[in-house]
Specification:
two-stranded antiparallel sheet; 8 helices; Formate_DH_Fe-S_su; metal-binding
Length: 275
């Protein structure tokens, strides 16, 4: 099965926010009242009801001139996703396209995915059942996997009028990104392809005009070591020894201890975002 990549060239973005509108419309996401941020940016970051955000960044370039940098910000769909590893209910999985999705029927709203995502793009939404009892579910960009199933492209890509976003075969999109960086190096000396290998590479690959930190991105995001040990070693061994059902109970307890580090003021491996 072909793996797909969403290619984003920030140097072609004009900040129109059409991608945000298209995402809201296709996914039937409600509007959110927001406070004035002092610029044209409408949201500080992605939320449970806003799965992509157009960033406006004031930046002083190498010539001492002030300029605006734009970036379409949404889930990176990591090849080795921390959110998938830390989920104790196996509610997060990879699709055949390489995208990362959350099963809302299985999600229990524990929040471990939100605490361990190196890009901080997952959020919890509060709900109430028919009896008034509150519960939570995790939400994020799905890369419009339902559209891909029908042979369509993600809604944000189809509405981009500047050609800043494209969607296609993984290898072809990465090659395109590498070629684009070569073309713009004279104008943007710090230009680079952002496809961090600490998370196995991503299925949203960016051409950045400046260093990742300028855009509030981690330079070298990694999957927390505790998540790797838990998902790839402890869980399989535990299930084999004591059974899947018992392991699920044990897993919920252990996950609560090792995956809530950010809530307690700890950030393992320094992989957190700075947006």
């Amino acid at each position: 099965m072909t793996k797909y990549v969403k290619y984003v060239d920030v140097t072609k973005c004009d900040g129109c926010r059409a991608c945000m509108v298209a995402c809201k419309n296709w996914n039937d996401l409600p509007a959110e009242p927001t406070e004035f941020l002092g610029s044209a940016q409408s949201h500080a970051k992605t939320t449970a009801d806003t799965w992509n955000v157009l960033q406006y960044i004031e930046h002083e370039n190498g010539k001492g001139n002030l300029e605006y940098l734009f970036r379409h910000s949404s889930c990176f769909h990591c090849t080795d996703a921390a959110c998938e590893k830390v989920c104790p209910e196996n509610a997060i999985s990879y699709t055949k396209y390489g995208t990362v999705v959350i099963d809302q029927d299985t999600c229990v709203g524990c929040g471990y995915c939100t605490q361990n995502c190196p890009f901080e793009v997952i959020s919890l939404k509060e709900y109430k059942d028919k009896n008034g009892k509150e519960y939570r579910k995790a939400h994020k960009c799905t890369m419009c996997t339902d559209r891909i199933d029908e042979g369509l492209q993600p809604a944000c890509v189809t509405t981009c009028h500047t050609g800043a976003m494209e969607f296609g075969d993984k290898d072809a999109m990465i090659q395109k990104a590498e070629q684009r960086v070569k073309e713009i190096k004279d104008r943007y000396p710090n230009a680079m392809v952002y496809n961090p290998q600490g998370v196995g590479g991503t299925h949203s690959v960016y051409v950045l005009a400046e260093k990742p930190s300028v855009y509030g991105l981690p330079d070298n995001p990694k999957v927390p070591t505790s998540a790797v040990l838990w998902k790839d070693y402890a869980q399989p061994i535990g299930k084999a020894m004591i059974g899947a059902t018992t392991m699920a109970v044990v897993g919920a307890f252990v996950a609560n201890k090792i995956f809530s580090k950010k809530a307690n003021g700890h950030d393992e491996d320094g992989g957190g975002n700075h947006e």
